[in-house]
Amino acid sequence: MSDTRRRVKVYTLNEDRQWDDRGTGHVSSTFVERLKGISLLVRAESDGSLLLESKISPNTAYQKQQDTLIVWSEAENYDLALSFQEKAGCDEIWEKICQVQGKDPALEITQDPIDESEEERFEEMPETSHLVELPPCELARLEEIADLVTSVLSSPIRREKLALALMSEGYMKKLLQLFQVCEDLDNREGLHHLYEIVRGVLFLNKAALFEVMFSDDCIMDVVGCLEYDPALVQPKRHREFLTKTAKFKEVIPITDSELRQKIHQTYRVQYIQDIILPTPSVFEENFLSTLTSFIFFNKVEIVSMLQEDEKFLTEVFAQLTDEATEDGKRRELVNFFKEFCAFSQTLQPQNRDAFFKTLANLGILSALEIVMGMDDLQVRAAATDIFSYLVEFSPSMVREFVMQEPQQTDDDVLLINVVIKQMICDSDPELGGAVQLMGLLRTLIDPENMLAPTNKTEKTEFLSFFYKYCMQVLTAPLLANTVDDKHSKVLLMLVCFPDNFQTAQLLALILELLTFCVEHHTYHIKTYIMNKDLLRRVLVLMNSKHTFLALCALRFMRRIIGQKDEYYNRYIIKGNLFEPVISTLLDNGTRYNLLNSAIIELFEFIKVEDIKSLIAHIIDNYYKALESIEYVQTFKGLKGRYEQEKDRQTQRLNRSVRYRRDPRTLDEDEEMWFNEDEDDDEGEAIEKSRPEEEFPESYGKYIEAKKVKESEDKENFPKRTPTGSFKFTFSHSTGAANGTNGANGKPAASTTSPNTISSFYLSICNYPDDEDEEEEDEEQSPRKRPRLGS
């Protein structure tokens, strides 16, 4: 068994003045030839690798804190700390350091880093000037003591000497006894001096003094002294808050008295640092570094002690998941876990991993399903914070849990669906909670963190799960008032919603997530968009009075076009989905704003990327409306590309007709020439467009017939109602987009009926069943057009 006395954790201080854990190992002091001196070596207990190799320099200032810490600086901005498991091990290494430097091990610090000018100044002074003589601890001398404490803060050497003097003969305890006397006498002048003294002592930055000041019998007197700031007309009431307002709640009784004392101490010291002490100036930032370290190591110790108590966590989870537990009790349990998870961030990585795995094994995710559905806003907020810790730690662990749920529960209570509903039904006008939850959902569905080599099928399995069980819940606000007429197989759609800021913000969040899916999920989201005619419904939002929402809808379409996928392109063409975009552009008029620029960029992208099918559709259907726009050359450029491609196809067609002979007399070269551009790969999921197919000889006749057909079932575009809401009626339904017609061979017209605001929110939180999901998931391959010349 390894020697636990030498077991240490290695810490380094980062730029934010926070301690980073570098690992756990065993320390030794030995001569290192390369460094030419006695050095401290720490080897990792996991694999024996070298965590630390530091030469004990005669000029380095080592400081011993809290009996189990040794802290020092090796460079101007590189601080190190060794945290020992046992005091005996710390004492051994401290004696070795002092032996190398020729110092007395009874000191808490070997020396102070001081600049040359200060060192020379002290060398010129007589030996006795190094000593700090404290005045007698009396009421009449408080002003003198306060002046002394304030005067030494600028000198490292004098700060050390004063600290030694204060620790001798119980001086600090005597000062705190004077505080009680002054308060009984209502001696405001003396109380103001004590404020300056205690504040100055904290800035001495000495762990040994903190051990005395933050002990159970002294800490409330320290808080009392800090209430009497001379700058305040009336003293603060910090002690009243700590003793009466702030209540220590034991969700499960803590039997370990040392753990209870450590929790109380940490909370009060944190309160002193965050609430009572003023924000330190630039010159005072380093004065409280030891106080920060004191709190940090206390938190590490608390988490470690709780983890080692096997019965405690088991009992907490038993009550958290027990249906008989009262709501108030469950609220306290959730808040406890929130604080517990926050404290766990101080653990080193391997210990933090073990901590979260322990929580997962005990059923933390199942418990979150329960509490996230509670009506208490504070409980839901705390549960969301816990969920964020878990997602940040291991998205794969959360995904694995939710994929097992359909075997055990209904779709409505799946964890991810609970999270989505919380996002949609967030009552905060600013949707702060919804934004946080949307970020967590984005992390969970991000394929970039689904590449773990241990489970190569995770991406496929989870995305299939998400689109089967969760996507309809996410898109419910967009599809809230959809009616499915199963007899005529025609989808009638009316979207009627309060066009207020909160609704617009919610829809913008959902569109942001859907846009992310278009970029990263390809097949799954493409199938869903086609089956639900989702783009058409999103483009309804182009008419919103909230420009940011219209831009979100446009961005969604821009990402779809950016995929340069012919399935998407044919879907847009058949559904005539450029019409609401062009209508918005024309309604915007000559205003030069972000909406105008974004729409122009969409068409510029189509031109630059030369997406032939979309160019032909735009020019044939909308050029007359767009040709008057001359402040950009985008639309003239589209017309130019259209004419070039049409001429090119005409030339190819004529050439093929001129040299065509009886098929039976074709030689091998001609056969290859006719087939050189044909793509017959049946394995391709998406049919690629061929240049010769874009402008067939009969294209003009086809366009004429199409225009006649469109005039018969012309769309009614969104109109603003007197109430400020919008009503949108579409003759192009899902059936139209996918080639489904009514009984007479024409697309059935849609009908509209107004809906109230309350019905909209009812639709958001009560989602329609999707019984035909399995049937719609089967994507039909588009019919290939005949090859030219056949």
UniProtKB/TrEMBL annotation:
Top-level taxonomic group: Eukaryota
Pfam name, any one: EVH1_PP4R3
Residue ranges of domain Serine/threonine-protein phosphatase 4 regulatory subunit 3-like central in the record: 144-644
GO cellular component: nucleoplasm; protein phosphatase 4 complex
Sequence ranges of Low complexity compositional bias: 734-745
Bias (Basic and acidic residues) ranges: 703-718
Signal peptide: none
TM region(s), chain numbering: none
Chain intervals for the UniProt region annotation (Disordered): 668-790
Coiled-coil ranges from the UniProt annotation: none
GO molecular function: protein phosphatase activator activity
GO process terms (BP): DNA damage response
Protein name from the UniProt record: Serine/threonine-protein phosphatase 4 regulatory subunit 3
Gene symbol of the encoding locus: PPP4R3B
